[in-house]
Amino acid sequence: MNLEELRTLLARHARPEWTTAIDGVLISKVERSDPPAPSMTGTVLAVIAQGAKRLALGDRVYEYRPGQYLVASVDLPVTGQFTDADPEHPALGFGLTLEPSVVAELLLQAGPGDAPRAGGSALPGIAVSDAPDPLLDAVVRLLRLLDEPRDRTVLAPLVKREILWRLITGEQGGIVRQLGLADSSLSHVARSVRWIREHYAQPFKVEDVAQLAGMSVSAFYRNFQAVTAMSPIQFQKQIRLQEARLLLATHPNDVTAVGHRVGYDSASQFSREYRRQFGAPPSQDAARLRHTTHTTAGALP
Fold first, then answer.
1. What was the pLDDT predicted at 75?
2. Fewest 10 Å CB contacts: which of 93, 203, 258, 286?
3. What ranges does the record give for the region Disordered, renumbered to this chain (predicted)?
């Protein structure tokens, strides 16, 4: 019953830009299964109500279907596609941005033993589980508030906190709990992830980023790989190539300059790695991007 009403609410309130009147709540409605597209996950809960979604992160592949949810605890570069969508049965998804400060507040308010303690080692940055009925019920009640503007301002924050609590105490609670702990392994990795994203065009030594994260090199490498499914250098390359593709969409005739801008000194290396990532050399892919409309199919939810 929850899933049926969830589909109805998502279909009614879907917008082209995926935003809603409730801050942090996203609704996706996709009517075709486009080729895989790169995007960043954000820190998010995503619930599928209809259709299916597949994400690739490094060498890991995640797929979630109706009644399942995905949590991403770090903003990670993924390649994603809806694998079961058509105009008569569009893929429908719910997304909620996960705020570390709210997670931390809930953990502080919890009674002794109410929320299991997070372990010391970093967990994967993405996980998929079946959505229990109490979680789906809370998501449905949050979406109902889109039809109740008088109640929305007061009740929406309360229901969002309930959803977070269901996640914290649920099967993937370890991942979500680490999001709210300032000294967790995940928070240290997230700090290094942000630094690499902000400085992706410049070379770095892993030792320096490990020091920034407050870890030994061996612990940093192990935890970074656990969260992102990539080494720090591989992660940097993913960010560089995604940024290059965005730049080529608006500067299709400036391939060499784009390569330099994202950090490649060698045009041949840029072309080779770009082709390996996106299936076509930069100039050819840029021409293709010019003749296709922008799609958000790779993004969550």
1. 92
2. 203
3. 277-301
